[in-house]
Structures are given as C-alpha cells and as structure tokens.
Amino acid sequence: MLRVAFDASLAVLLAGVALNSISYALQRRKLRAVVEQLTVGCAEEIDAVLAVAKFIYANVTRAKDPVFLTPLLAPLGGSPLAILRQGGCCSGIHRLFIACLGTIGIRAAQITLYPHSGRWCHCAVQVTLRGTVCIIDVDYGVIYEGPRGEFMGLRDLRSGIVPSFRVFANGLSAPLCAGYYRDSSPGYPSSSYYDFDFRNTRTANWQKSWVRRRVYALLRVCSLGQVDSLFQPPLLEWPQMFVSVSGLCLALALFIARVAGAA
C-alpha cells in the first residue's frame, strides 16, 4: 500500500511538472511574439530594451500582482503574461520586463532598493548589455546614470555612487488602478518616501516577511555578505518554472525514498 501511495504521488508530481513546463513554453512563445513586434528595427540592444520598457510603462496597469494558480502560491508573484494582461506591482512590472528581455536573449535581473527609513522596498532591474550594465526602473520610467551620464549597475550603487535619473518615458502616462498611491507621470516624485539608501541595495526583498528576514540573516553570515550580490536566475521569474523545479526536487526525494524502501 505504501508503495502504491509513493507511485501515485510521484505520478501526480511529474504530471504537474509537465503541465507547468508546457504552460511556460506556450506563454513564453506568446510573450516573445509581442516583444519581437515591439523591437522591429532596433539596431542596438539598448534601443530594444527601451522599446520594451516604454511599452510596459505606458500599457501595463499598476495594480496588485495576479495570483498564480492558488493563493498559497501568491508569494511567487504572477505569471509574466498574466501581469501583461491584468497589471502588477513594482516587482510584477519588473518580472514582466525581465521575462520580455529574456525572450530576445537579453539578460536582466531584479534589484531591490531600500529607503533610509521605513520597512518598505522598491524594485528595479539591472540589464546586462554588451560590455556594460544599466539599471532601469520601468515602474517610474527612469534609467540610472552616473556623474558623467554613464550607465551604472548594482556594484556602483553599493560602492556609494549617487545616481541621477534620466526619464526615458517622456510624454507617456502610467495606467493606474483606482486608489493607487502615486501619479501617472514618469520620474520619482519629490518626496522623502523615495530617499533610497543606495549603498544598501540588494538583489531581493528580504523585508517582506519575518521568515525572509531570518533567512537573510543566515544567508548573509554563510555567504560572508555575498548574498547581496547574487542575482535570481531570470528563469525563476516565471512561477511555472519555480513550481516545476520544486516539483522535480520533491519527485526525486520520493523516488529515492521509494528505492530505499524497496531495498
């Protein structure tokens, strides 16, 4: 009976992995078709990046992230295609941006900005171009620049270089859901709310829950502080793939337990 239960559980897990993988492949294909249409005629990578950023800024509603499959998986965030259609918060907007760039071979990863005061966090993205990196906040329509107008990355922020913000979404408005806390024009509002402690920029929002705060404390010690520079793989911005990877790991554990039990 126990073996039957193991086998049934393994079959269900593998079926779930297969369905999630198919969902990922189909949705990625649809997203790629949108991106390819947006980037027709873009001669340089940065032109393609900004074309996608402008589209997302002006067309994706700022709202709560859609739930993936079940509220139990809400911490994973919404699927990029669902965010494109239904809207999302700053992390969802940038998850969509990262996924879009990934379909045309441009690597990007989330970074998290922490204010000098308060426990909230804000998301942006570091994009890797040929020979350089740049930081873009699609949610507010700005690109980060150094003292001489050069691109800058996470390492520059953490070293203490204070950025300036060039608006790339001039003339565009961000669609906001009812009751949203900000206006629709590009650029950070003149408010202490946006007084970020750039030296404290990290690659994840570790303030979101007490569990994350404790996990972060452990990882920071174990990695000698390097956890703040480790980017999440772009593939895991798709909740389908996160669930598939988790399902495969659990299926492997069940298989090992099944074999061990048989022995």
Protein model, in words:
- By secondary structure, the protein is α+β, with helices and mostly antiparallel strands.
- The protein has a domain at 42-201 and 233-243: C8orf32 fold (Roll).
- The chain is built from seven helices and five strands, in the order ααααββββαβαα.
- Helix 1 packs antiparallel against helix 7.
Q: What attributes does this structure have?
A:
263 residues, alpha+beta, C8orf32 fold, 5-stranded antiparallel sheet
- Compute the average pLDDT: 86
CATH class of the domain at 42-201 and 233-243: Alpha Beta
Number of helices: 7
Q: Main sheet?
A: 5 strands, antiparallel
Short recap of the structure:
The chain has 263 residues and is of the alpha+beta class. It has helices spanning 2-38, 45-59, 80-86, 90-103, 154-158, 210-222, 239-262, and strands at 107-113, 122-129, 132-137, 142-145, 164-167.
Which helices and strands appear, and what pairs or packs with what?
Elements (H helix, E strand, L loop, with lengths): L1 H37 L6 H15 L20 H7 L3 H14 L3 E7 L8 E8 L2 E6 L4 E4 L8 H5 L5 E4 L42 H13 L16 H24 L1
Antiparallel strand pairs: 1-2, 2-3, 3-4, 4-5
